[in-house]
Amino acid sequence: MSNWIEIAALEDIPKLGSRVVKTDTMNVAVFRTRDDQVFALKDECPHKQGPLSQGIVSGTTVTCPLHNWKIDLASGCATGPDEGCTNAFNTKVENGKVYLSI
Amino acid sequence: MKEKLVLVGNGMAGVRTLEELLKLDPERYEITVFGAEPWPNYNRIMLSPVLAGEKTVDDIILNDRAWYEDNGITLHTGDPVARIDRVGRKVVTENGEEHSYDRLLIATGSNPFIIPVPGHDKDGVIGFRDIADVEAMLEASKQDKKAVVIGGGLLGLEAANGLMKNGMEVTVVHLMDILMERQLDRPAATLLKRSLEERGMKFLMEAQTSEIMGSGRVQGVKFADGSEIGADLVVMAVGIRPSIELAQSAGIHCERGIVVSDTMQTYDPRIYAVGECVQHRGQTYGLVAPLFEQAKVAANHLAQLGIARYEGSVTSTKLKVTGIDLFSAGEFNEEEGDETLVLQDAAAGVYKKLVIRDDRIKGAVMYGDTMDGTWYFQMLRDGTDVAAMRRTILFGQHDLGDAGHGDETRVAALPDDAEICGCNGVCKGEIVDAIITKGLFTLGDVKAHTKAASSCGSCTGLVESILASTVGEGYDAAPSKKPLCGCTEYSHDEIIAGIRDHELKTMDAVRHFFEWKNPDGCAACRPALNYYLLARWPGEYQDDAQSRFINERAHGNIQKDGTYSVVPRMFGGLCTPSDLRAIADVCEKFDVPEMKVTGGQRIDLFGVKKEDLPAMWKDLSAAGFVSGHAYGKAMRTVKTCAGKTWCRFGTQNSTGLGVRLEELTWGSWMPHKFKLAVSGCPRNCAEATIKDFGVVCVDSGYELHVGGNGGIKVRVTDLLCKVATEEEVLEYCGAFVQKYREEAHYLERTAPWVERVGFDYVKQAIVDDEAQRKALYERFKYGQKFAQIDPWKAVAEGKDQHEFQPIEITAA
Ligand SMILES: Cc1cc2nc3c(=O)[nH]c(=O)nc-3n(C[C@H](O)[C@H](O)[C@H](O)COP(=O)(O)OP(=O)(O)OC[C@H]3O[C@@H](n4cnc5c(N)ncnc54)[C@H](O)[C@@H]3O)c2cc1C
Ligand code: SF4
Ligand code: SF4
């Protein structure tokens, strides 16, 4: 399972922000944290499918713009009282390039 | 010779009965009190703040030993009564002391229920009931790290909060899937859980404890599903059991509690009982308000007045975790056929629900804003017909009458019979009376004289407001504050002032200065800080797109289906054929599925895909349009009427003035959306009196109106003043806008802001104080230099393209 795809330079993803990667089957949101960790989630909130890429990132969570569910970037699961998960994908950063494995 | 009264149980209900009795007939009895605990009577409710380190044991003593002496009461502490000899009419204590009685009052309270699982008797497993328990918990928190609290009810959560404040890692284990299920419905419980989690509390829901593990001392807890967690301390807070053993062994009829009649007498008429140990009409109670009602009745009969009857109580609950406001009463889960009224403001963290049956309130749950809890509760108990206030009831009591100014006027508007202190049943009139007749100045005085705010303390804010409005200037309020969000202890006002006075110019600087718990902040505080910095330091602070809600980041309104809507600005609602043609062209080019003329006199283009936005804006920009900011906490529109040019009633050029106002104010970021209007005469076709800033033209000039709102909660403007020239209109408008921008809380519209600070305050600053007005206006114009950069044009020219362009990979 190491079919890494180069998707962007790290600098192309805003800090505490995200980019959307479109694949044939779905949209993937790729997030960058304050300390340059990169995470990738299917761009659908487990609640009402809100676009997580449009949420506010803090620490290693993103808050869905529709109903404020807080999703853990590493696991893709809702934190707190809410329950549900979206798919999480592996990422790596090498030489300033971000790779995604789907 | 005096008759002998003996009280068994030196707690809240028993001693309250003595107090009531002393008021009615101080001379009748020779009173003796036996208490198992080594303390004089203290406020058990306040154990939670003691555990949390917010109060000391001394603070919560209600009746010190001197009180007993002064009233001729003999007090035996630390010596429980072991036996009641009903035939010999005497009690015998564990130490062997004997004391005879003519009448006996039992108020032994209750015991925490300890689940009888294997290991429940290990060292380090305790309940949460008395000072000894709190001391044990504080002791444990010094050396141990991990605490498990079993039970996610009121008591469990207060214990967990306290332990956390003492530096322990706390996990709350709860059998149900929502917290406080006896007091809260699901949405409120969810909000509560989220905010406790933000403070660091952990939860294991739907977990059934099966064993307490450890050799000698606890080491962990095991669950029915086989999983385990480690623990150095286990607090059981799963419920209480009335303490009836003593009564039972004396042959007094008991079921779940000691059974009493409406006169608080047991089956033995010489023996009375009050408090949590009692069962009345099948009910037992675990909150002080009903117990204090019982105390009144028992005292009345002990004084042999024989007129009072206890007929049961409806109870309400508040949670005493600092920073969390929560209220619940009655039947808060609706049944079939009930109506519910709900107000939910996720961003502000406010949730209110009323359950209504046959036009009567049956239950209420409130989270975030509990100001009106006592009002709803009173109507619930009184069975008030609420049909006539249905539309406004959720906005609170002050909303029924004329607009008030914040809490103080809300309180001032309450009728004298409005109940303020639910625990002690004290009404507003009694408090006001006491303040005036006894010359009270402090909260402590009021507590001492009326008992208001002396039990659970939730009504402290209300009592302070009554003091402030009754005493006026003489009262020195300690500001009660509400933190901006879970990341900080500081309020909006403190942060706004800090940014200004300490010249904090970056978000990190603010978060550092105000000791944020979370380095990145959260989705609630980031947009607020971004706005405050932007408003205070124009030209210096760099707007942070990642701290804006998506609508503002994408400069469009995200719609239900993930597409955006685009609204080009039309100054004063005016347009030309070529404007309309340009819009039509854009719509055709980008397949815009729907166009609509908005209430703000411009055109909304719906259903635009995000990736098309930059190209669309480029075309609109080329045709001379700028963004209408229809998506932002920003200046939205200036609505105008036909005016003097065309309308026979018109007195001034309302459209021209509208255009000038819009040119002055467009692009300005605000705490919330901001709308203007100009009407050409008092017929007011542009509806200027429900706008944030409205102008009504008259023959002799311009009337300026502020603080209106046409949303869910309609508010008519206040008349600010009248001016003679268009130049003055612009100056007053700019000054008002700037005052609001600098001082209102983020997400607070002008209407609540004006109510909070008081219209007179605003008027004073803008109308009476010319120097301030001019300075505000200058600051506004200076800020506008940086704000009037069209975001659409910037994006069309390449700024933040990544926001709009997805990365495509097709080989996946
Ligand atoms: C942590 C905590 C928080 C709470 N928060 C709230 C709240 O926010 N709002 C609210 O309304 N209520 C609250 N309560 C409940 C409230 O404290 C009780 O309802 C109230 O104290 C009950 O009064 P009582 O007199 O019946 O019992 P107690 O106050 O418990 O008094 C009974 C006393 O009798 C003594 N006793 C028992 N047996 C004997 C014996 N054989 N001989 C001599 N003495 C004996 C006991 O040691 C005890 O001191 C809270 C309780 C706790 C523990
Ligand atoms: S407000 Fe007065 S001037 Fe304006 S359109 Fe209405 S009637 Fe005419
Ligand atoms: S009034 Fe309500 S439903 Fe209508 S457009 Fe405004 S927000 Fe939407």
Summarize the structure.
Chain A is mostly beta strands and about 100 residues long.
How would you sum up this structure, described in words?
- The complex is a heterodimer of chains A (102) and B (812).
- Chain A has strands at 5-9, 17-22, 27-32, 38-42, 56-58, 61-63, 70-72, 88-94, 97-101.
- With 102 residues, chain A is mainly beta.
- Chain A is globular and about 40 Å long.
- Chain B is 32% helix and 20% strand.
- In chain B, the strands form ten sheets. Chain B has a five-stranded parallel sheet.
- The longest helix of chain B is centred in the last third of the chain and has 18 residues, at 726-743.
- The radius of gyration of chain B is 32 Å and the shape is elongated.
- Chains A and B meet through strand 1, strand 2 and strand 5 of A and helix 7 and strand 37 of B.
- Strand 2 (17-22) of chain A pairs parallel with strand 37 (807-808) of chain B, so a sheet runs across the interface.
- The complex binds flavin-adenine dinucleotide and iron/sulfur cluster (2 copies).
- One iron/sulfur cluster is lined by residues 641-643, 647, 649-650, 654, 679-681, 683-685 of chain B.
Give me some keywords for this one.
heterodimer, A: 102 residues, mainly beta, 6-stranded antiparallel beta sheet, 3-stranded antiparallel beta sheet, 9 strands, 0% helix, globular, B: 812 residues, alpha/beta, 5-stranded parallel beta sheet, 26 helices, 37 strands
